[in-house]
Amino acid sequence: MSLYRPLALVAAIALLGGCATIPQPLQGNYTAISSAAAQQGGAGGTQVRWGGEIIKTEPGPQQTCFYILARPLDSQARPELGRSGGDQGRFVACHSGFYDPEVFSRGRELTVTGTIHGTVTQKVGDYDYPYPRVEADVVYLWPKRPVYVDTPYPPGFYDPFWGPWGPWGYGYGPYWRAPRVIVVRPPPPPPSGK
């Protein structure tokens, strides 16, 4: 009976690990082609799952187009944190309906699924850049990631007997290196002139 207990534990961990997978709307089998490779043509009609950071959002009368700096996707199909577009390139994904550019703003992470339909040329500086165009079936806006900042000890913590690091010694206390969540707020409006 003691043999089955570790096996049951391993099975439970595997099931729980399976819960942290790709969100339901983004699941499926897609062709492993990068947006940079799709720029060369010949990929029309290919089903893809791409993601990255929004460069700009352009609502039109029938659909909204998202210009995206492509990034590799992690195991949850979310754009990888801290990875630049590099050789991934850029792409444009269009979906029917209105999407608010204030919500789908520059720098937000987006993953889309859909079909490649040619390219759209837009200016990037003085360069005519051919964006592979995706007719999106799913547009998935990821929640903003929290910002963590290291702190040596909790704010206001001081004990005259033990010092700021407590009885645990330098760097071994339960609060040492505990992350703090910092909320970034927009700057206040400029003062009105008289």
Automatic annotation (TrEMBL):
Keywords linked to the UniProt accession: Lipoprotein, Signal
Record's protein name: Slp family lipoprotein
Originating organism: Dyella agri
Signal peptide: 1-22
A family per Pfam: Slp
InterPro entries for the chain: OMP_Slp (IPR004658)
